[in-house]
Amino acid sequence: MAVDLSRRAYRAQRWAARAALAAAALAVVFPLLYGGLRGLALLLCGVAGLALSSAALWWTLTLRGPLRWLAALVAVCVPAAVIALSAVFLFWALPVSLALWALAVWSGRFALRGTGSEQQPARPRERRMPLPRRAVLIMNPRSGGGKVGRYRLREKAERLGARVVLLDPEKENDVTAMAQEAVVGGADLLGAAGGDGTQALVAAVAAEHDIPFLVISAGTRNHFALDLGLDRGDPAACLDALTDGVELRVDLGFAGDQPFVNNASFGAYASIVQSPAYRDDKIGTSLEMLPDLLTGQQGARLVARAGDTTLDAPQAVLVSNNPYRTDDPFGLGRRERLDSGVLGVLGVKVESAVDAAALLLDPSRGRLTILTAPEVLIEGDRAELEAGVDGEALLLPAPVRCRIAPGALRVRVPRKRPGVAQPPPRLNWRRLRKLAATVGRTAAPSRFRHHPEIPDLPERQRPFLGL
User: Fold this and answer.
1) Which of 177, 268, 351, 417 has its CA 20 to 30 A from that of 115?
2) Residue whose C-alpha is closest to residue 54's, from 362, 462, 278, 443
């Protein structure tokens, strides 16, 4: 019976692959057939409009005065004009085309799900460990607009037996010294309620002494908590780890001696966050500083070295604790793993409006560099480099050596938590074509390949599975 079910399942996947290919083809052909030469002209106008909008966006960021606002007007009006022309001349063919694209994406991902064409990322192994007896939690009452007070985190933690240390919002706090003092006092677990910057400082002390670290998602965004699978909507739920928790081993990043759980950025963004005016006027400060930063008139000239790759004079370099997903627009800013033992590196170098247009139309042509490495060296033409480390503005001695400490951090998390959403399979049209062309049992995935009632696949039929 199991074999019959598996055959039905893979017959459905095979037909889903065919439907995806057919829908994608119709999505392109249908507007052209409906609009004739006008449809072809609109398609070319769409590509040209996309390039012009990208160039106009570059001018918006690099110019000042009336020319900036004229460029901004072009960046907004050109796409609107292309959409309006498409709606007028293609009428209902445009929404039909978009619906066909949506069907192609859904069918393609359904077809590739479970075929073995893409290995799911391994999750850190959970370990059941003894309950902490002397937990110390450092809380920032200002983080996340006052989540510590709003969710009564101090009171709830103390009821669970933890000692809470509140940061003083009226003065500078040495978070590292507080965490070290807690360890000297006998703490067998350290925790932090705050943003990623506070989390990183406490996490580094916990990693140094090899004691568990508890993340409480009381910051504004809390990317680290998100990638650990914690509930960002209810910080108090993170405290369940004190009574019913498991431990995960994850990596910890360092930029020089500065730890980070999320990322360290260099270049334009890092220079902007150094400005005292940035916190009160983020948009205005960015628009004021970007023209000089993007054109090289201000800021350090950077060189980033990662393995055999050298990035010369990029406008921005982002080094992350494990790589971000870049294949899916809905998964940007998320990390599939926190224990891969490598840094993610993203570098951008755009020198003109032509480069800006080319970056959007074809990001693979060298203007956007994406890679992984265990170590990255950031050099500059200054003694100190501006850096944004987990959102904190810092000046670091040059050169800055970014490294990763694999498995250095023991994180204690609730046993019951939302978890990390499984990413959908990447759309691979080549694999879809092979799957659509297979017949019978040749589409069976590797987990059924050695079933006693399913003979081994011939070698010529295995490439579809990536074997």
Assistant:
1) 417
2) 362
Q: Residue 311: CB partners within 8 Å, gap ≥ 6?
A: 302, 303, 304, 305, 317, 347, 349, 369
Q: What is the secondary structure of 193-232 as a DSSP string?
A: ES-HHHHHHHHHHHHHTT--EEEE--SSS-HHHHHTT--S
The answer to whether residues 228 and 215 touch, using CB atoms and an 8 Å cutoff, is yes
Closest CA to 263 of 316, 302, 327: 316
Q: List C-alpha distances in Å: 120 to 24, 339, 426.
A: 26, 14, 11
Location of structure tokens 């499984």: 422
Question: What is the C-alpha end-to-end distance of the chain, expressed in Å?
Answer: 27
Q: Which amino acid is at 209?
A: H
pLDDT in tens, 361-418: 776 665 788 999 999 999 999 999 999 999 889 999 999 999 999 999 999 999 998 8
Rounded Cα distance between 56 and 61, Å, is 9
Cβ atoms 121, 322 nearer than 8 A: no
CB–CB of 191/175 below 8 Å? Answer: no
Cβ neighbors of 456 (< 8 A, separation 6 or more) are 449, 450
Residue 50 has pLDDT above 90, yes or no: no
Three-state DSSP state, 136 = strand
CA trace torsion 156, 160, 163, 164 (10° rounding): -20
Question: Among 26, 139, 51, which Cα is nearest to 356's?
Answer: 51
Tell me the C-alpha distance between 88 and 101, whole Å.
20
Phi, psi of 394 (to 5 degrees): -135, 160
Quick one: DSSP state of residue 165? Answer: E
pLDDT digits (tens, 9 = 90+) for 220-232: 888 899 899 998 8
> Residue 368 belongs to what H/E stretch?
strand 368-373
Q: What is the DSSP string of 18-79?
A: HHHHHHHHHHHHHHHHHHTHHHHHHHHHHHHHHHHHHHHHHHHHH--THHHHHHHHHHHHHH
Q: Which residue has the tokens 């959102």?
A: 391
Q: Pick from 423, 446, 326: which is nearest to 120 by CA?
A: 423
Quickly tell me which residue has 């850096």 as its tokens. 387
